[in-house]
C-alpha cells in the first residue's frame, strides 16, 4: 500500500461535545500520522469553496449553517493507505449504519451531525488538504 495523505475534519458537534481529544487519540492509535492540525471557525465563504460541488443542492444551506456554528479541527493525515484507513476509522456516513467502535458510531448523532469528515479519493484529498493548509503548515 502506498504512503498517502488525506484530509480530516472533526466537525462542530464533536468539538462542542468535547470529543476532539478522543478522536485525535484514535487517529494516532490507528497508526496514521498527523502532518497538519488546526482549530478554526469556518466562514460561509470558506464553506462555499470547500463544498463547491454541493452549493446548488437542497441540503447545502443546512450543511453550511452546521459547519459554521462552532469551531472545527482540521487535519492532514498521512500513512499507508491513509484515505481508506481514515474512512474505515470514521465509519459509515450515517452513524445509525456505522460499525461498532467507529468514530461516527461513538460520537455522531445523525447523518447531518456525524462528527467527522474525510476525503473520499486521492483527488479530493489533494484539493481538501491544499484548500486549508499551506506547504509550510504540513510537517
Structural account:
The chain has helices spanning 12-16, 20-30, 44-50, 60-67, 82-90, 103-107, 122-132, and strands spanning 3-10, 33-40, 72-80, 116-118. The longest helix has 11 residues, at 20-30. 35% of the residues are buried. The protein has a single domain, classed as 2-Layer Sandwich (Alpha-Beta Plaits), CATH 3.30.70.141. It has seven helices and four strands. It is 40% helix and 20% strand.
List the helices and strands and how they pair.
Layout: E1 3-10, H1 12-16, H2 20-30, E2 33-40, H3 44-50, H4 60-67, E3 72-80, H5 82-90, H6 103-107, E4 116-118, H7 122-132
Antiparallel strand pairs: 1-3, 1-4, 2-3
Termini separation (Å)? 21 Å
3D shape? globular
User: Which structural class fits the helix and strand makeup?
Assistant: alpha+beta
Query: Reading side by side through the largest sheet, how are the strands ordered?
Result: 2-3-1-4
Helix/strand order:
EHHEHHEHHEH
Radius of gyration: 14 Å
Q: Could you tell me the strand content as a percent range?
A: 15-25%
Overall pLDDT metric: 97
| CATH architecture call | 2-Layer Sandwich
Report the CATH superfamily.
Nucleoside diphosphate kinase-like domain
Amino acid at each position: 500500500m502506498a504512503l498517502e495523505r488525506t484530509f480530516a475534519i472533526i466537525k462542530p458537534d464533536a468539538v462542542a461535545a468535547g470529543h476532539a481529544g478522543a478522536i485525535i487519540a484514535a487517529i494516532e492509535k490507528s497508526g496514521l500520522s498527523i502532518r497538519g492540525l488546526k482549530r478554526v471557525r469556518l466562514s460561509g465563504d470558506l464553506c462555499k469553496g470547500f463544498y463547491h460541488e454541493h452549493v446548488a443542492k437542497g441540503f447545502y444551506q443546512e450543511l453550511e449553517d452546521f459547519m459554521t456554528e462552532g469551531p472545527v479541527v482540521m487535519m492532514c493525515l498521512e500513512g499507508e493507505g491513509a484515505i481508506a484507513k481514515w474512512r474505515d476509522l470514521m465509519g459509515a456516513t450515517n452513524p445509525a449504519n456505522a460499525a461498532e467502535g467507529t468514530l461516527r458510531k461513538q460520537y455522531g448523532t445523525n447523518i447531518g451531525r456525524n462528527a467527522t469528515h474525510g476525503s473520499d479519493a486521492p483527488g479530493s484529498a489533494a484539493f481538501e488538504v491544499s484548500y486549508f493548509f499551506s506547504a509550510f503548515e504540513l510537517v
